[in-house]
Amino acid sequence: MVRLNRALLTAVAALSVASGVASAQVKVGIINLQRAVAQTAEIKKAQAELEGRYRPRQEQMAKLQQDLQAIQQQLQSMQGKLTPQAESELTAQAQRKQREYQRMGEDLQGDVDRDRNEILQRTGQRFQQVVKKLAEEKGLDVVLDVSNTIFYKPALEITDEAVTAYDKAYPVK
Residue 45: CB partners within 8 Å, gap ≥ 6? Predict the structure, then answer.
């Protein structure tokens, strides 16, 4: 009988502890991390710098594409009027321009992707630190990304506060 009472007492104590933990409020914050990172002054500046850095190569690609179109148009309009040798030379020229255009596009895309990923990785790491500090200051137990939530009250969102805190912690030079 003593064993049964002890087991019952232990079970009741465990339930009361568990219900106390379950009834404790968990403070949650919601952040739209993708929007937050995109809105930082650092990312806006980096985007403008990337566009400026790669604009000449994009313009060079546009020129190549115009040249290629002109050759293709010339081949179509002069079809049957060109000597086989002239047609062959124009076709070879178009193929060279096409390969050059493809290579230039692949190189440009690779360079842009590398630079963008480097910037986003650095910013993402910094942003995690900022969000952690902001959560501690606000007494939040959990911060969830909006992409992982189905519903939340707008009052829980800390995106704008996080952007402000990030820009303050990492001002653009």
Answer: 172
